[in-house]
Amino acid sequence: MNNDSSDRQPPSWQQLLKEKDKHAQQLEQHLNDKMIFKWFERFDQQYSHFEETLKAQEQSLQALEDGIVKANRRFERRSTAVSMMECETQQSDVSGRRYQNSSPDSETNDFVLFRIIGNDLYPRHKKGQSRENLRFILEKEQPLENCIRYWLVNRIVDADEEQQILSLLEEFDQQWVRIPFNTKEYQNIGLDMSCLPESGYLASREFMALDDEKRNRVMTAMYRHKNNYVMNNNGARNKALKEGKKLAKWVLPWDGNCFLTPRAWRRIREDILEKPWLQYFVVPMTRVQNNDQLINDNFQPDAVEEPQIVFRHDSSNLFDESFCYGRRPKVELFWRLGVPGKWDHWRDEPWDRPRSTPGPNAGQYGLAGWVARLSSGMLELEQHNNISVKERFKARQNAIIETLHLMDRKVSDDTVSWSAPSIDIKNLVDKRELYHSGSDSFVIYEIEKLLEDANSIIEKQRSSDYLTNESSFFNYSMILALAWFFNGDHRHAVMSARLFRRFFFCCTATTDTIAETDETVRIEMEKLLPAHFMGNAWCYPDVMALLERAGVLSGTEISIFKSSLRQYLVWLQESETGKNYCAATNELGTCVDLQIAAIASYTDDKMEMKQALLRSLCRFNTQFASDGSIPALLGDRNSRTRCRRNLQAWINLFRLAGRSNPEFVNHVSTKGITLQTALLSFLSFDAKSWPYTQHESFDEQCLQPLYAFVGHSDDANETHVAREPKATFPESHGIRPYWYLEI
User: How far apart are CA 575 and CA 550, in angstroms?
Assistant: First the structure.
């Protein structure tokens, strides 16, 4: 047997060399791999550092680019000021020599700064902001060299706010002039209908197609005269100019929120005194978001806002008082003086005042320093961007309308602590006092009759799950609510509330309440639709106001009803059917305006109510001919009925609007017709003399509210009007039950 070990041969020298080379290669490969790894690791570290360096450089370049963009925008905004400086007239040297030989050259170059304090216009300004800015100026602004400081308190509507402002001026020993607000003067101011493209524009499809912003612009234009009285923008500037010219050579009739740092005032004086032969200087304005920025005299302005103006005392130009606040009051003078700016590129609306052309002094102005405009208190509106500019414009338009609407309500002399949309609560309160005092037999008789009717309705409804007479729902509801008002018996208010639930929510005697938490319920909208336009649906918000006062409705019920009414108004405005109703030129259009105004008054939608009332005035302009007739209705087979129904709707609308909208009381159409003259024209005909077609029978007693409105007694027409006023009419007549109790 062979032994394996004895057969095994030792490796040859060549094999050993091969093994050695192989191990050497493996070792070399291993060493190479390690070196490559370390190299990659080192490269990785270097690359990361390089990447961070690139990123830092990129951020630096981005910051530089942003700075260039901002500088470019700043340059563009300043181009207006540059163009002003470049527009100096060629005759400046001649004007200078001529000035040196004139008397103004020998006068002392003293100044008077008249700052005008007006009403805070929320939401454009924070409430109380004018007073806050006044205190800031009085406490922080340093004395101005060779300048008298005066204040003009301009028609402050809020008497308490005005007194606080005057007290503050007295505290700091300031000199001031006051222009008072006069309620009677304001009441006599009407609307400016001449700005509309056509007399019936607000009742047209074209107007309804406008967005909310453009509609507000139209309304602002129509309120120009009221705006001019309350804001008195250019009127106050001219008053300051007139008073200032008595006090100093140079007059600054500026806005009340202007602030001057010592450096800003030095610049203004230096620039004016360098060219004193010029009669006008424009002072670019900078807007600040934080007033405290101005305490530091090193504040750097970005003076690109609409400038203020300095006048020499012998200048002849005044501000045009026909241009109202919010529609370029100061810019109008820029146009006459030839001051270029972004206002040259603003788009004119059809209802804007026409632009003024350059006057004989065009180009004869200089540029002087800068002034700061203090914060309005609404920081979101004080940003330096296009969005903020647009939002400021919208807020200004809304603030104008809101302020004027508040003024209309303020001057309505409503002395009661609560109100209903169309009922004159003050008159009802007077009647209630007469009833309880027993001092007026007629009032006692009529209210006793009202209470009998209310008790009768309770008896009819007590035994029924549903409405016994749905066609009388609005009359029944009003009678019950009025009965509660006069005698305080909650049975009447409770039954009226039950009718509300049964009519709008189809509740029965066993489901006669709506759960306080049930907010999914909605009223049946068809109960408000066209079938009721011509009837008494318009006065149902008055019922709801009375029931709320009585405390017989839950908060959820009131919320549901108001929410549903708002949805209904949206439907009227946005649906094609609703737009057709609003644009109707006959009595349907009048009744729609009446219903919308009543609903908007109840839901406290001031803007919607204003639009409805203004639209109705335009409709009034187009409905009536110059003789007071209504041509669109005279060809109907029952023309007398339709004309009466239309006139009754107008009476209802005028009563609703007149208490808080003085312009309605004496409105005169573009053809010279008032509601009074239209009623007299209609009432001049009786059943026999009516010259147009009338097939159905006509209830002569429904003329009683028309005669009452024009102030005629029944005695004048005993042949067809009963002596005792009729209390209730069919709902289709559009006459409120017991209509005469609020007269």
Answer: 36
**Residue 537 · residue 733 · CB < 8 Å:** no
Q: Please give the span between the terminal C-alpha atoms of the chain, in angstroms, as a whole number.
A: 147
In the DSSP assignment, the letter for residue 125 is S
**pLDDT of res. 251:** 98
Quick count: other Cβ atoms within 10 Å of Cβ 367?
Answer: 21
Q: What does the pLDDT look like over 366-404, one tens digit per residue?
A: 999 999 999 876 555 455 555 555 666 677 777 787 788
CA 380 to centroid of chain Cα atoms: 18
Per-residue H/E/C for 144-199: CCCEEEEEEEECCCCHHHHHHHHHHHHHCCCEEEEECCCHHHHHCCCCCHHHCCCC
Q: Is 155 left (phi over 0), alpha (psi -120 to 50) or beta?
A: left
Q: Please provide the average confidence, as pLDDT, over all residues in the chain.
A: 82
Decide: 563 and 603 in contact? Cβ < 8 Å: no
Could you give the maximum distance between any two Cα atoms of the chain, in Å? 162
Cα angle, residue 540 at apex, residues 535 and 542 outer, rounded to 5°: 130
- Asked if 95 contacts 277 with a C-beta cutoff of 8 angstroms, the reply is yes
717/266 Cα distance (integer angstroms): 79
pLDDT, tens only, 496-513: 988 888 887 766 555 555
pTM given for the model: 0.68
